[in-house]
Protein: diphosphomevalonate decarboxylase
Organism: Neptunomonas marina
Amino acid sequence: SSEPVTCFAPSNIALCKYWGKREKELNLPVNSSLSISLGHLGTQTTLSLAEVDQVWLNGERLTDDTPFARKVIAFIDLFRRDQAVTLKVDTRNNIPTAAGLASSASGFAALSLAINQFFALDLSDDVLSAFARMGSGSASRSLFQGFVEWEMGQQEDGMDSFARPLVARWDTLRIGLVKVATGEKKVDSRSGMTRTLETASLYQAWPAQAARDISRLHSAISDKDFQLLGETAEHNALSMHATMIASWPPLVYWQPDSLAAMQKVWQLREQGIPIYFTMDAGPNLKLLFEAEYEADVLTAFGEIEVVSPFSAVP
Ligand code: DP6
């Protein structure tokens, strides 16, 4: 087809994190992971024919040597038989920049959906998720809404390493995005994982913890046990950060304000408010709570963005 196509994919937050690759080229993970998607927040990507390959991000054309532009073109090359077919990739994130969320997951998921449609590949969800994974591991989970589990798989070609949505929904679940200001340039997930696997002896304990946490999350979701969900997610995130901190040179993604926000969460819990947090490879917190406590959370944290993950799930 030569008609432009536009596809959307949501951002996602892992409750059990993907941390560590057993194979770096294909993004095959050491452990399975489980996430929740962010509904309407994510990336919209339009593909159209153009004179030369070009990548646009939020209305601006990127120079060809930008890391993101190179990754996007390399990804398209995986699908494009005919190198003479050159494309414009127009990527727009509606994730509020103030929320400090990574966009590579929703970006590569939206791009995979758009490629599938543009080249009329008619790929199944499983295969599309495995392809999105090659762009960025967490993108395998961003093809779907709601709770999503990425099975690590066993095969060397990675074709059994893809994500699937869980049927369960949880309409009262809320996610609060706490942006912690940072000027420092962070180490991206790929290099962070490599450093952790190569230098942190604590990492040896991670795969077993992740397996245990996935099964706890399944119980929490099927029993609608919010305390178990929150405790598991927070413990999982802090355990991942422990492996990062135990790397050399140390990988400390926290800022002083990250710790201040954690302490606020712990204080609220002491006051009887069920609220937990998770964090990725950056200084920002994602709060987990239920709708009835939204007012308390806004009082404590100010005007943060609050997402209802299941409002986008029909
Ligand atoms: C800490 O998916 O960004 O956010 O596969 O190298 O692109 P690459 O890494 P990426 O890593 C995400 C790591 C994480 C945890 C998670 O989202 O599961």
The longest helix spans residues 226-245.
